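User:
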Amino acid sequence: MSLRIRRQTNKSQRGLSEMPIFDFECSECGNKFDLLIANKDKDKAQCPKCGSSNVKQLLSVFATTSSGSANSPNSCQSCPSAGSGG
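Assistant: Predicted structure:
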């Protein structure tokens, strides 16, 4: 699974807005694909391979950023639960 971050500017609204990328799987042909689509339009998603609208949304991964470095004493590596999955 790969991380995807995209931003789209929308100057008709105040400033910038982000439009998420959603992962889908087609129930007809099994094609997995992602779409840059507004949350309110997810139900209109169609498979780009076969055109079916019988698609299901998959759980997507997302990225976060941190101001600390991996060597910083405040990083997660110094946490007692780092690397233990908890």
